[in-house]
Amino acid sequence: MRYAVTRLLQAVPVFVATTFLIYFMVWSLPGDPIVALAGDKPLPENVLRSLREHYHLDEPLIVQYGLYMAGVFLRGDLGETFTGQPVGELLQDRWAVTAQLALTAWVFELVVGVALGVVAGLRRGRLADTAVLAGTTFVIAVPVFVVGYTAQIVLGLNLGLFPTAGTDQGWPGSYLLPGMVLGSFGLAYVARLTRTSVVENLRADYVRTATAKGMRRSRVIGRHALRNSLIPVVTYLGVDFGNLMAGAVVTEGIFNLPGIGQQVFQSIQLQEGPVVVGVTTLLVMIFILANLLVDLLYGVLDPRIRRG
Amino acid sequence: MTVLNTARGAAVLLAAALALSACGGSDGKSGGQGAQGGAKAFSVALNEPDHLMPGNTSSSYSITVLQALFDTLVVIDTAGKPQMRAAESVTTKDQKTWTIKIRSGQKFHNGEPVTAESFADAWNATAYGPNAWTNNYYFTEFEGYDALNPEEEGAKPSADKLTGLKVVDPATLEVRLKEPFSQFPITLAYTGFAPMPKAAFQDLKAYDQAPIGNGPFALDGAWEHNKQIKLKKYAGYAGPRPAKSDAVQFKIYASRDTAYTDLRAGNVDLLQTIPPASAGEAKKLLGDRFVPTASGTMDYLGFPVFDKRFQSADLRKAFSMAIDRQAIVNAVYDGAFKPMASLVAPLVPGYRENACGEACLFDKAKAKALYDAAGGFSGTLNLYFSNADPSYEQWMQAVANQLKENLGVADVRFRKIPAADYLSTLREKKEDGPYRNNWVMDYPSPQNYLQNMWGDGNRMGWDSKEFRDLIAQANAAPSMEASIPLYQRAEDIALREMPMIPLWNWQDQAGYSSKISDVHIDAYSPNLDTITVK
């Protein structure tokens, strides 16, 4: 428990440093977000001035950051976008979409990836193994947007198996295809990691001992080989949560899912500092929590780690 | 811990994951059902609007929604002429003081009657500087604007009402402008001049999210940001264009490519922005349901006339004659755009097919001769454009190649500027070479192009007293018809001196599903009220 608390406290300096860095980076982008608000049309000088004052853009960076942080901690106010929408509300709306997408992808990675890896590992060198190796190599080599558009056109438009875009059908219908696209890259890794682990563990002394004792093969694999094999996979799945968020930017764009990824992309283009910082902070927190969860899971999978 | 326990742990984790997903999922499902509710409903693909307050948005996506929610005083017909809608008449004796009579019996969606005050309140709020609304600059020509928008930094406005706006009686509104302006009636078609009910001013922020209009459709439920906006037929509508269908659902897309895929899949009924690259395919796929629409948007190549290397009008004309517009349009826009030899778009009253004469026609030999006679160009030629769309770079490269080949300009470089920085670069006159200039029409009048682009404080740093005088005379002309020859004479001067070359006129490409009919999209409105659902 103390371990968990320490890990959470470590997040505080990470949090402050990350948010400031992000704020600084967004601020130093070229261009004037206020002038860009009206597109090709001019905005009168006094309108520009009022807008700058409203968003504190006339203050030095450090003051802007201070005002933002004061708002967050004193009033729980994440600021507002240039169109006047409260950032907190915005993230609330979008958060559910990205969570559904990422979890769909994650479950897909976990279930299908581990299954494929185990099959390949148990049948090393045979056709199933070769097929998994070839398939995963292909998936890793092709960029996400190619997989995404192809899946959308072929499975969504031509075959009509899935909705092409949007969230009209809710979960799971609208999220299956984008989830699979988003999870395909991680799935390839999970399958390969599992396979290697399984192959290695099947050669280990304790597996040979268990077999020699006359234990049934299914029990040997299930209880001994597989459980140990999952340690590197769990590590990967934890870290992968961050990758899923990054991949969501592309996938949400292709499948028109109004989630966090799409928001980050738009907000960086519009130089909306508070939005980018708000989202990033949340992502950092998730990353830290996911890693914490992984560390705790180690203990479950391998008692030696827990006791040590 | 046993295998069983591990499995249970994993199961709990999965269950939690699914539970979290499911709670968000129910939300999405209800949206889906709403879309099917009502037998005569159709859907329209849209990008996320920025605001839905008439005074605070110039985004075309917002305007698409507002045109269904609001009746403006005037609308523009397909010939580019003003027609009365919420107004009964717009009249003047001197082009400076205008009397607007409001048609009786109109109601807002909350039952409040539409009066002269509804317009005056909305306009005063838009013109009030500290509100910082996008359409503020549409009121610069109204008497009293300066008191609401002090120039000096830190100064507080001395008034919050335009002196040039007078509510005479509930059905009569009087407008006084600073200068005579013959085009005034047509400007009233812009959604920025829509009326607002009293209820709006109790909470403007809430109104921006849920506007109450006076049009044939009313908002149905909350604006679900980045997902959908639903409208339903307004039963109390007594105007000239009652809705033919019961409901409209705007489905919000982040990318027009995805929207186009959804149109092909039959998931959305109307898309106004088929990507130009897919035009050929869409034409084959949709047949009669593919609708090309002329647009008022023009592309130009501007010169920094303030830079002494670009001060010769003959040199600028030589550049113009060296550019093969048709070839570029074919290569970059699949032939969809129209090469231009006029400064205004074809749908503008007063447009002349070849106002420019030979200076806008591609002629290699004459271009070279003129170029040499003007002393040519030495040094690096920098070409400026923004990174907002990949096609800008494509056509700039084509222009560069033609200048190299046809004029022998040796050293051409590209200056690609981030979109957010592009306008301030031009405004501060930091460019030292020709640049992409674009104009999106506000209303179909030559004045909208000429005065904004070639008038006072123009980007090129070009100045002609003759031109300015003619614009002022046209603005003061006794009627819109009488103003046109004067604008044409002003256009001739701008073409003779050529501080900016016309390139091509845009075209929009819409498409719709077989589920709907009576689609009448024009350059001014998608006219969603006319659409019927099969």
Strand element count of chain A: 0
Class of secondary structure makeup of chain B = alpha+beta
Largest sheet of chain B: 5 strands, antiparallel
What pair of chains forms the biggest interface? A-B, 70 and 66 residues
CATH superfamily of the largest domain in chain A: MetI-like
N- and C-termini, Cα separation of chain A: 15 Å
CATH fold-level topology of the largest domain in chain B: D-Maltodextrin-Binding Protein, domain 2
Give the helix/strand class of chain A. Answer: mainly alpha
The CATH top-level class label of the largest domain in chain B: Alpha Beta
Explain the overall architecture.
Chain B: It comes from Sphaerisporangium siamense. Chain B: Keywords: Signal. Chain B: InterPro entries: Peptide/Ni-bd, SBP_5, SBP_5_dom. Chain B: Residues 82-458 form the Solute-binding protein family domain. Chain B: This is Peptide/nickel transport system substrate-binding protein/oligopeptide transport system substrate-binding protein. The complex is a heterodimer of chains A (308) and B (534). Chain A has 12 helices and no strands. Chain A has 308 residues and is mainly alpha-helical. Chain A has 2 domains: 1-77 and 271-307, no CATH class; 95-259, MetI-like (MetI-like fold). In chain A, 40% of the residues are buried. The model of chain A has no long low-confidence stretch (mean pLDDT 81). With 534 residues, chain B is an alpha+beta fold. Chain B has 2 domains: 42-269 and 513-533, Periplasmic binding protein-like II (D-Maltodextrin-Binding Protein, domain 2, 3-Layer(aba) Sandwich), CATH 3.40.190.10; 295-508, Dipeptide-binding Protein, Domain 3 (Dipeptide-binding Protein, domain 3, Roll), CATH 3.10.105.10. Chain B has 16 helices and 19 strands. Chain B has helices spanning 3-36, 60-69, 116-127, 145-148, 184-187, 204-209, 256-264, 279-286, 313-321, 325-333, 364-373, 390-407, 419-427, 446-454, 465-475, 480-497, and strands spanning 41-46, 74-76, 82-84, 87-92, 97-102, 165-169, 172-176, 217-219, 228-233, 247-252, 270-271, 290-302, 338-339, 381-386, 412-417, 435-439, 500-512, 516-517, 532-533. In chain B, strands 11, 12, 13, 16 and 17 form a 5-stranded antiparallel beta sheet that branches. In chain B, a hairpin with an 8-residue loop joins strand 8 and strand 9. In chain B, helix 9 (313-321) packs antiparallel against helix 11 and helix 14 (446-454) packs parallel to helix 16 (480-497).
